[in-house]
Amino acid sequence: MKSLQNLSLHTNNLSGPIPKTIGNLTELKFINLYANQLSGPIPSVLGNLKNLNFLELWDNQLTGSIPFSFGNLRNLQYLSLGDNNLTTEGIPSFICNLTSLTLLYLSRNNLKGKILQCLGNISGLQYVMMPHNNLSGELSSSICNLTSLQILDLGRNNLKGAIPQCFGNMSRHLEVLDMQHNDLSGTLPTTFSIGSALGSFNFHGNKLEGKIPRSLENCQRLEVVDLGDNLLNDTFPMWLGTLPELRVLSLRSNKLHGPIRTLGSENMYPELRLLDLSSNAITGKLPMSLFQHFRAMRKIDPSKKAPSDDSYGYYENSIAVATKGLEFEVVRILFLYTTIDLSNNKFEGHIPSIIGELIALRVLNLSHNGLLGHIPPSLGSLSSVESVDLSGNHLVGEIPAQFACLTSLEVLNLSYNHLEGCIPQGNQFHTFENNSYEVISSFSLSITSSTSRYSWTKTDQLLLT
Description:
The chain is an all-beta fold and 465 residues long. It is 1% helix and 27% strand. A hairpin with a 2-residue loop joins strand 24 and strand 25.
């Protein structure tokens, strides 16, 4: 047994502490014990395994701190301790002695303290992932020394201060930059260069100001841009439509203003599947010419299978989505969650009938704007739609009878408009709550159908009689 080099017992139901006798297996190079139910502290005797290259203990119930003896593991390349209950007060400085390290995965623990400046000295680091912890302090520009870094994920911590501008210079090798849900301030980096490798750019939920950097259009591999819930003050970045792989664009809850002006190019946003511009101050008419470009929203993938995420390894794209009256995090299946959310803006004019051609849409939210006119019957062609919210506008006329064909529809909100006439019968309509049809009025309005009679009262409640 002492000559054992590979100990691989991952994805079982192993429980209890890791036995200290493992420290006697001095020839070990690989330890894979992830996805079990191991508990207790990480034994310090693991530091005796001088030949160890891979140590994967993620997704267990391990507690305590990272043993100081790990500083002896000079051949260690992969250190994966994420998804446990480690409570180290700060990332231990001896990690910087692990000069062979290429992957540092410490996600979803209770780690506190600051990001080590000396991490910038581990020249071979390719993956640094420490989201969902309690890390604090400011980001050091020393991270920009990591010229091999491909993934930097420090999201959902308590980091503050400005973003080092040199992050933009890392884009030639950096594929993922995720700083979502921290307390970062100042402006975004502006120096993204041609030939960028950046695929995911997520700063959702910070306090960033200024404009969206125009140099992002140099990042032709970008698939996800999430800058929602910040203080960005800009107009809609139509120029991002030149990115051929962009699938997700979330700019919700910022200070975007002015109309959406389209460009002359015929090939804009060809792969976009999720557009969230909610809770801004965007004005003008809904951009029919923009909807014309959304090629990926015009076709349904019958397989409904997610593409492989192997290229990102441990990292999973995730963004916040508001739908069906709830906000939740969508992970990995972003490409399936086809969404247009333009709610809580200052849009006016009519709803373009061309939206009905976006048959892959699952969520359509145009609520709380100043939209006028009738609901286009073409929206009845959205065969995959699960949630439609047109509430809080000035829409008139009847609910299109074609809506009865929407067999996937789970949530329909048409309240606080000026609609009249019969409520369509059949399929999903008998499942909707009364508040789907609440109206703003100072008078009574009767709505009848072949089976029921509905009446609006002065208290704006829908009553079945």
